[in-house]
Amino acid sequence: MRTVRAIFSRELKSYFFSPTAYVVLTGFTALSGWLFYQGLERFIRITNYTQGYKVGDQVVREWTLEDDILIPLFKNLSILLLIMVPAITMRLFAEEKKLKTIELLLTSPIRTSHIVLGKYLAAAFLLTLMLLPVAMFPTIILYYAGSNVDSGPLLLGYLALFLSAYALAAMGLFASTLSENQIVAFILGVVLELIFFSIGLAAPSLDVVHFFGWRVPLNEIVRDLSLGNHFDFMTTGLLRLSDLLYFCCLIVFWLAASNHSVESARWG
Amino acid sequence: MKKITQITGLCGLVIAALGIFARMIQGQGSLLVTLHLVLGGLLLLIGILTNLAEIREFLAKRGARYGTGAAIQMILWIVVLGMINYLAVTHDWVQDLTKNRLYTLSGQTLQVLNNLPGPVEATAFFQSDTLADVRRRLNLYTAAAPRFHLEFVDPDKHPELAEKKAISAYGTLLFEYGGKSIRITQHEEMDITNALIKATRSEEKVIYFLSGHEEADPGNDDKAGLSILRGALANQNYQVRGIFLTGTAVPEDASMVIIAGPRIPLAEVEIQALNNYLDRGGNLMVLLDPGYATNLEPLLAQYGISADDDVIIDPVHHLSSKDPFGLSPICSDFEQHPVTSNLPGKLLVFPRSRSLTLNKDPARKIRPMPLVRTSSDSYGETNRSLLRERGIARKDPEDLPGPLAVAGVAGRKIDLPPWEQQKKQRSELQTRLLVVGNSRFLRNGELPTYSNFLFALNGINWLAGEEDLVFLPGFKRGGNRIYLSTPQKEGIFYATVLILPELLMILGVAIWWRRR
């Protein structure tokens, strides 16, 4: 574990001694603050003259602070993560490759898995710092709206934001192992994350198919593979073991893939 | 030549992979797809056979060996993680963290699911990826009851199935049990559970509303009518019919007769018809407004119930906006009974009611029971003329002191003769009677007030012997608001959009400056 800690602190220092961390933290905080304020302002405006979402003359859903400010905010932030996370992870291996320091790392007695884990934990730590200020938004709502607010979906939505960030970081890390060019690593990361995030959108066009006698529910498989679907489910306020395991498995899989990708450089 | 065969092999790989992909998407084989698979396989085989030496040489390399090992390991990862996720999805552990348990089935629904007499086939004709909330709700039913079989069908993809089952609207839920089918397009828990009850029950119940005495009319949709109740009963799969009892008996198929606030006294022949009906094990709901003679008094007296000649006034607990005297008493005192089982903590309002007196007669095994009482601040004003003509309401010694019964039930068991026992496959019949000193609570104007709707449906379901039909609140989250003054809004804006990002930026610049 000492080697993991060494790699972790080395990566963290390089984040915080360069403008990267501050640019990311400032940008994300400002954007999330603006999105929150926009949502709040809009909510106050619409609740002044309508009770809820109407179909004809009938209100089919009343406006709520959870469904109309905070859960959409969490969803918007999860989309923002698709850009922010690769921006954080793109340099992790690509820079080492570019500067040829990867050879030093790989020829050192440190295990590849420790290098991967150390770098991943550093990126995850920075993402944690980035997401911590988001807690301020539900706190503001709870402070002013009091006990009327349903805190379950908010807590789970916030947890989903962290889990998504960690899963996307693992994918971004893998993308970074594929190229020595940080821009290429960034684009690869965005594409990979976008595929996993939005693959669920393909579900409606798929159906249960019978493949050589096997019943394959393609639509359900695609829906269960989608990060966006699991994120949406958590924001409803239902805590499911399958959602938690999905995020954990995603992290484990992409860290294993990153490990093999780095290892291939050692043996290739 | 070697190069061409290598390209041929690669082309074969691509064509075969596309063939497999197309086969999966299409779901069924076609000539073109089969051609892809055969041609791809053939080309791949040619590529492999003509380049065996090169392939062997490549595989002997260290990198290739590692690559193969890594690929196998990654496949193993996918299999293991895929299995973990599959098990998690099929044997999920779910915890509802919403404040009002929006995604937890009620105890009543679970009871219905546990008592399903056999496998119920449910088909949800939903377009793909629509009605996510309803899908979630239906999956709770599937998880709770192995006898509840659910299938989602997209009517756009399978129009033949929709046509076969006579589905005409997106979002239709079809329940099938023993050759009987129920279709609903409302998706609240109450709708789904009641549809299940209706699908699994053996007979269709008919409710008769007595006519001819200026009673409240189920077909009337103004404030004095009963159209809202009629709609709710139709949703619960009851048939609602009107009936005149002059010269005719109550039909055999009657589950109950409702007498909703008659203004004109019933004729002797009608009373006799009702008596005969009750002697056959019939069920009766009688709503009596103050100030009207109905000739029903002797019939009710047989069951130990008499309607007092008063009007209830509650100067403390009443709808203050609607009456200054307290003529609309609000009631929250309920006796424990199937009709009131889900009412504790709720309120009922009975505008312009008369009180009921309930007399037990142990000798005849008649034990009427008050269901709803007014508060102890209420009283029964017996001098109605003073109130009507001079607008004065005061508690006098001759007035009835509160709390007063405003609704009551009574019942009687009737032993069947042996030949009837064989015919009806039971040894006794149960007559049920529900009497309320008011008909307004059931009319369109007051039915939606407080929990009157719930009380009315509970009462009707109890009379029909359908206590298990449920009335449940919806799954929607209640609306809420946030009120902020202009300085508060500005404070939030500065804190979230400006101050926090600025602090982070200043911190970054300071560290960069120090290191420079």
Describe this protein's structure.
The complex is a heterodimer of chains A (268) and B (516). Chain A is 76% helix and 7% strand. By secondary structure, chain A is mostly helical. In chain A, the strands form two sheets. A two-stranded antiparallel sheet of chain A has the order 1-2. With 516 residues, chain B is an alpha/beta fold. Chain B folds into four domains: 2-90, no CATH class; 107-191, 3-Layer(aba) Sandwich (Glutaredoxin), CATH 3.40.30; 207-463, Rossmann fold; 481-516. The mean pLDDT of chain B is 84.
Present the secondary structure layout:
The complex is a heterodimer of chains A (268) and B (516).
Chain A: H1 2-16, H2 20-49, E1 52-55, E2 58-62, H3 65-89, H4 91-98, H5 101-107, H6 112-131, H7 136-145, H8 151-177, H9 182-198, E3 208-211, E4 214-217, H10 218-225, H11 227-235, E5 238-240, H12 241-267
Antiparallel strand pairs in A: 1-2, 3-4
Chain B: H1 2-26, H2 31-50, H3 52-60, H4 62-90, E1 94-96, H5 107-114, E2 120-125, H6 132-144, E3 148-153, H7 159-164, E4 172-177, E5 180-184, H8 189-200, E6 206-210, H9 227-235, E7 239-243, E8 254-260, H10 268-279, E9 283-287, H11 297-301, E10 305-307, E11 311-313, E12 330-331, E13 333-334, E14 348-349, E15 356-358, E16 369-373, E17 379-381, H12 384-390, E18 400-401, E19 405-415, H13 418-424, E20 428-436, H14 452-463, H15 486-515
Parallel strand pairs in B: 2-3, 6-7, 6-8, 8-9, 9-20
Antiparallel strand pairs in B: 2-4, 4-5, 10-15, 11-17, 12-14, 13-16, 16-19, 17-18, 19-20
Helix pairs in contact in B: 1-2
